[in-house]
Amino acid sequence: MTASDHISGLVLCHAGGQRLAIPAQEVDAFEPAGEAARYAGAAFESDARAPADAKVLRHRELTLSVDRVEVFATPVPRLAVPSALSSSWGGALVCFVECAGELWPVVSLERLARGDGEAAR
Amino acid sequence: MKRPVADAHGHLLFACGSSLYGVPADTASEVVNVPALTRVPGAPSHLLGVFAHRGEVLPVVDLSRLTGKPLEDTARRAVVVRTPRGAVALTATRVLGVSTLEGSFDRLGESGVHQHLRGPAHAEQGEVAVIDTQTFVEFLASAG
């Protein structure tokens, strides 16, 4: 198994009872909660609202808020995205990983930022 | 006049609610109990979630939601279908086994998921909508 079969440095995020992971190198900054940030939980449930103490991740001009975060540094194997999910969230879903016994969708903030119009649907 | 036999190799039949479906037996990989699922951001409502199974991630698709006949309770089993385009797990309330089918194999509709359903075909258990698994998986990829 090659190095590219693994991914290391993930920010594990919880949003609205759901979970997603973001490559740490794509997080430019963590910021205080703000109304302008898109809430990640809304990608799971359209009526989800960010809590008052939401954490905001920034990548270039894109901001994404989540309920809480933790950093996971251990390299883990990538699991491919099934073809049925290839268009999910505007194509921002890059792979899955298993961390601490749970399956996490890994979302690229870079792809989310590029396809912002599509991902907003 | 005798109605034509659809496929000498048979179809795996299963129920999703009150509807019967068939998939070509050679595309039906296994029947699994649906475990706790991981939700996927931005996924449509018919994609209930995913689970890790033997080193791969399988999406679980609720046919009842796709066809506009949502179930009151979530199905606890799923038929895993494999095509060159990918694999999906289709929720099933009952799995009925492999049968040969007779009848019509025309498209059941001109839009949405119904373009990928054929029939109505007939089995001992009743009227069956046959899933064209190749085009169905392509459809899911475009609808996701």
Order of secondary-structure elements of chain A: EEEEEEEEEEEHH
Largest sheet, spatial ordering of strands of chain B: 8-1-2-11-10-9
Outline the low-pLDDT stretches of chain B.
none
Overall SS class of chain A:
mainly beta
The number of helices of chain B is 2
Q: What integer value in Å does the Rg of chain B equal? A: 14 Å
Beta-strand percent range of chain A:
35-45%
Largest sheet of chain A: 4 strands, mixed
Biggest β-sheet of chain B, characterized? 6 strands, mixed
Compute the average pLDDT of chain B. Answer: 90
Explained architecture:
The complex is a heterodimer of chains A (121) and B (144). In chain A, 8% of the residues lie in helices and 40% in strands. Chain A is mostly beta strands. A 4-stranded mixed β-sheet of chain A has the order 4-6-7-5. The radius of gyration of chain A is 14 Å and the shape is globular. In chain B, a hairpin with a 2-residue loop joins strand 10 (117-123) and strand 11 (126-131). The longest helix of chain B is centred in the C-terminal third of the chain and has 11 residues, at 133-143. Chain B has a 6-stranded mixed β-sheet, with no helix packed on it. Chain B has a 5-stranded mixed β-sheet with strand order 3-6-7-5-4. Chain B has 144 residues and is mainly beta. Chains A and B meet through strand 3, strand 10 and strand 11 of A and strand 4, strand 5, strand 7 and helix 2 of B.
